[in-house]
Specification:
Layout (H helix, E strand, L loop, with lengths): L10 H5 L2 H4 L3 H9 L3 H8 L13 H14 L3 H10 L1 H6 L11 H29 L7 E10 L7 H20 L13 H15 L4 H35 L5 H28 L17 E4 L7 E11 L5 E8 L8 H12 L5 E3 L7 H9 L4 E3 L8 H7 L2 H23 L10 H25 L1
Helix pairs in contact: 3-17, 4-8, 5-17, 6-8, 8-17, 9-11, 9-12, 10-11, 11-12
């Protein structure tokens, strides 16, 4: 059942001196903004208005999300800090004697909201900023960046070893639930360890023969994985015969084992394709985060990054008005048109100025911006430029727009340093998108609060 806020104070809270509860200026400003019913609406929409037990108040959940992303705390540390601080209790609308929620409740709410729910919260914040005329939608700048996945550096041998360990673990958990004699599952840990150590010794040689030797050892690991997979497939067949309608937990375990087998087969195929010199599309770089992909952005210090590509769309004063998260590395040119459509949906108009880097340049994008009536299209042209084009890019309006565009790099840097967009602690696309949305929500709300303090 929906609960918007905690309105009734307990006796101890009411008896506290007012000075103890006075919020710092930033938290007081944020508290006023988050009191907007339109911002709470996406959370309330996830709950039935009448049926069920009373939920955790939406206002408390939203404020906890703000503090978590603002100070980059884990769920458990966040609840502990709120419990120990009068100011944070007051900000989150908890009384002195109120019992705080369990850390797993925040995980539940993130899953329930999902990326679409968090995007709706961000749209509500943008609407509030527009209503206060802080942003008017006259300018648009966008840039892309990569948020790194929380995984170790992938190798073919390491991925196969991880796959064997994982499928063995979940298969043994399934086997423990079966009745009667089950298929024995061998422990392959020693065989895996010997071959991983052998690869480390071979790589010290730094010769051409070392590469061939590493591929040979990797193939041995692949054969071990195939043998383990065949044994576990027999276990899965045996388990399916014992599944009943009243036993959904065993069905879930079977699904886990089948998924682990599929992932193991995928990394084995990848390894053999690499040995044959084939190009691998949609390469899997982690079994813990199967949606992460290798992304090349042309950085000298980090030629390949592992994670997700994010498009950041900004309006005036550094407020982020839109974002998209992609698996892999789609071209930037495909992102500009949807960003302009999204901008028009938010503000009811196209911007007067569009500023991007040359990665967004294409004939289609230039034409689209022209048809929309955008006055200053500050998108540098790729490749060799004609005299007419050089003159266009030297115009004062174009150069001013490009100087403003450079400020977007600062916004991305701030999001990475302070709001968790450097390396995501979540796994898989949906959870990562939700975390990115909460980081951007916190960035916008804090920036709004700082304007009111000033």
């Amino acid at each position: 059942m929906q609960r918007e806020d905690q309105v009734q104070l307990d006796f101890l809270t009411a008896a506290m001196p007012p000075d103890v509860w006075t919020l710092p200026a930033e938290l007081a400003s944020v508290d006023r903004l988050l009191g907007d019913p339109r911002i709470l609406a996406p959370l309330l929409s996830k709950l039935d208005p009448v049926r069920g037990r009373p939920s955790v108040p939406a206002a408390q959940v939203l404020r906890l999300f703000y503090l978590k992303e603002r100070y980059q705390l884990s769920d458990r540390d966040l609840i502990q800090e709120v419990s120990d601080s009068f100011h944070w209790r007051r900000f989150c609308h908890f009384g002195v004697a109120d019992r705080l929620l369990h850390p797993t409740t925040l995980t539940y709410w993130r899953r329930r909201l999902g990326s679409e729910g968090v995007a709706a919260i961000n749209r509500a914040v943008t609407a509030r900023l527009q209503a206060e005329k802080i942003i008017r939608g006259r300018r648009l700048r966008m840039d892309s960046t990569v948020i790194e996945a929380d995984i170790h550096h992938p190798t073919d041998s390491g991925l196969i070893a991880d796959g064997i360990r994982r499928v063995t673990r979940v298969a043994r958990q399934l086997g423990a639930t079966l009745e009667g004699a089950s298929v024995p599952i061998r422990d392959r840990a020693r065989a895996i360890k010997h071959r991983i150590l052998a690869i480390g010794k071979v790589l010290r040689r730094r010769t051409g023969e070392a590469v061939a030797e590493v591929r040979r050892i990797t193939e041995e690991l692949a054969r071990i994985g195939e043998a383990q997979g065949r044994a576990i497939a027999q276990l899965v067949d045996s388990a399916k015969q014992q599944i009943t309608v009243l036993d959904p937990s065993r069905a879930r375990r079977v699904a886990q084992v089948e998924q682990a087998l599929q992932d193991l087969q995928t990394v084995i195929r990848q390894s053999r394709a690499a040995t044959d010199g084939e190009r691998i599309a949609e390469r899997v770089v982690s079994l813990a985060d199967p949606d992460a992909r290798p992304i090349k952005k042309g950085k000298l210090g980090q030629p390949v990054q592992l994670g997700y590509k994010v498009q950041i769309i900004e309006a005036e004063d550094g407020f982020v008005t839109g974002y998209t998260v992609s698996m892999g590395n789609p071209p930037d040119t495909d992102a500009l048109g949807p960003a302009l459509d999204q901008h028009r949906a938010h503000f009811g108009r196209d911007p007067d100025i569009v500023a991007t880097d040359r990665g967004y340049d294409s004939a289609a994008n230039q034409r689209d911006c022209g048809h929309r009536g955008i006055k200053t299209i500050a998108i540098p042209k790729r490749g060799k430029k004609s005299a007419t084009r050089l003159a266009e890019e030297r115009r004062p309006a174009f150069r001013r727009a490009q100087r403003w565009r450079a400020g977007g790099e600062g916004t991305i840097s701030r999001l990475k340093r302070k709001y968790g967009l450097r390396r995501s602690r979540y796994r898989e696309y949906e959870a990562v998108s939700t975390g990115i949305g909460l980081g951007i929500f916190t960035h916008n709300v804090r920036r709004w609060a700082q304007r009111h303090i000033a």
